[in-house]
Amino acid sequence: MKKKITAICLCVALVAIAVVGASLAYFTDTDKADNTFTAGGVKIKLIEQQSNEDHTGFVPYTGDKVLMPIVGSAQGEKYPNGQPKAANYIDKVVTIENTGKSAAWIRAYYAVPSDLDDGYETFNAGANILHGNFGNKMTENGLATTYENEWKWMNNGKWQYFETVMDGVSYNVYFADYYQPVAAGATTEQFICGVYLDKNVDMKDGKYFDPRYPDADLSILEGTVHYPVFAVAVQAEGFDSAAAAMDAAFGAHYNPWGTPLPTGSNPSARSIFTL
């Protein structure tokens, strides 16, 4: 979807009020037993979490979440566990645990509806309608991002990216490789840590509307917005990089939502999540 940005900015409070009572989009957790795939005799578990009550740690992700325009900034003040204090920010902390008996290279993907994402060619995160936040980690020097540190999203200066269609909906898919093999029993740092609807989203004539893109069709927000996450793993033995392992096991252009699994690969515990 090509977009033209117009110089219009709405009051955040008014945006939030305008959406209340409308047909809202929800986050739903549809954990199933076949959403991550492995090759080479390894096993992984995709873990989804949200903040605990006092925001000092995390608990398993539960329940439907109402998707409403953010109030405040996702890059602003943080809770002790590193999550934003902004109202209507949706915690969705994703990590991957190696539950097998040997070290493994891990790659993770997330897909966002193309109608809600700026896309690869221009990729300006500030222009998105639906935003995803890269993972964080706590360090001796405070909160740090896992983007391009533990999780490598770029390849030769370009996003690792492709486009696909699921159930008739177009998606932009971004993926990242973990920087080192994950030992048996170990868990990665955060892949992503949350999502939120842009503050500009409003209602006009009973329909979702973003003044930055007056011609955009945002009818996708009238139902359940799917935001799938997927992980794959390959034995570390014999490979010096995640890219080499993934290419050998799954092919150079593997699409977990459109390419059949290679012969001999193993479906393992999977946990896809949707909005």
Polypeptide structure, described:
With 275 residues, the chain is mainly beta. The protein has one domain (12-274). 6% of the residues lie in helices and 39% in strands. The protein is built from 2 helices and 21 strands. The strands form 6 sheets. Strands 2, 7, 11, 14, 15, 19 and 20 form a 7-stranded mixed sheet that branches. Strand 14 (161-166) and strand 15 (169-178) form a beta hairpin. Mean pLDDT is 80; it is low at 1-34 and 260-275.
Supply the key terms.
disordered N terminus; mainly beta; 7-stranded mixed β-sheet; globular; disordered C terminus; 275 residues; 5-stranded antiparallel β-sheet
Our count of helices gives 2
Rg from alpha-carbon coordinates: 19 Å
Report the major sheet: 7 strands, mixed
Our count of domains comes out at 1
Structural class: mainly beta
Flag low-confidence runs. 1-34, 260-275
The H/E string reads: HEEEEEEEEEEEEEEEEEEEHEE
Judging from the principal axes of the Cα atoms, what is the shape? globular
- Strand count: 21
The CA-CA distance between the termini, in Å, is 20 Å
Mean pLDDT across all residues, rounded?
Answer: 80
Percent of residues in beta strands? 35-45%
Percent range for helical residues?
Answer: under 10%
